[in-house]
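thread: overnight batch results

M.L. [08:02]
morning all. the overnight job finished for the chain we discussed friday. pasting input first so we're all looking at the same thing
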Amino acid sequence: MKVLITGAAGFIGSALALRLLERGDAVIGIDNHNDYYDPALKEARLARHAQHPNYVHLRIDIADRQAMEAAFVEHKPNRVVNLAAQAGVRYSLENPLAYIDSNLVGFGHILEGCRHHGVEHLVYASSSSVYGANTTMPFSVHHNVDHPLSLYAATKKANELMAHTYSHLYGLPTTGLRFFTVYGPWGRPDMALFKFTKAILAGEKIPVFNYGRHRRDFTYIDDIVEGVIRVLDQPARPNPDWSGDHPDPGSSRAPWRVYNIGNNQPVELMDYIAALEAALGRKAEMELLPLQPGDVPDTYADVADLVREFGYKPSTPVSQGVANFVAWYRDYFKV
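M.L. [08:03]
and the structure it wrote out:
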């Protein structure tokens, strides 16, 4: 296949590009290389696959309508994976318009490109943050998700709605994947694991929000990529049993689906920190702080649909995933 990946110099995008290239697919990567975090890390990720004969890299912004139109016209992808987004819950409180430009305007350009160029399947990153004020655990795609707690979460919910209209109106198969706290080697510096590792090695305090009482469904990068590929290979299909009288939020009469990809085993933040301490061989000095605006206390993925329809569920234990990250971090930063 020829697969277009947006966010191809990002954490998940780069890992996905490597896997697709390894199995023989051609990949067109798009990334704007912005400075939300150190662009040098993006360049280093990209260097792992930039010279592959089946890889083409475009340094454009998905919010650039003309550039996106030209990319679809020239490269004619069979399938598309949208991983480009302005990420981060907390940053959405500081710079909301960045989320409008990338996550809404940019996603609109992707939908239009898929619609007009016969794309067979669009897979796009949603987020566990869409569950917002929901408290019923584990979070299920069959639950209502109309109460987001951050603009980031609202844009991801909006992506699911926008995709549905294109699936309904134009028959475009679309699948949204609600990722649950992705971590691992080559991860983002704004994520807790990266920040904690840097601080502990520097002998600095780590800020622990909600007094450490967070629970997260931490999901290892390789498990996420495996899930994305399995879903990408099986375009979304209509649900013949869907009823407007009792609408199922996770499926549709249109070829539209959403799935959770999470480890299905929530871990206490303190246990996550303990795994990091074990991997580093150092104790963390903690500053216990209240819950931050926009954050949710717990996430826990119901992955029954993923298991039933794709025979897959993430399985990497946190102890192993954190140890892999620390090994990568020490090698990358020579510490």
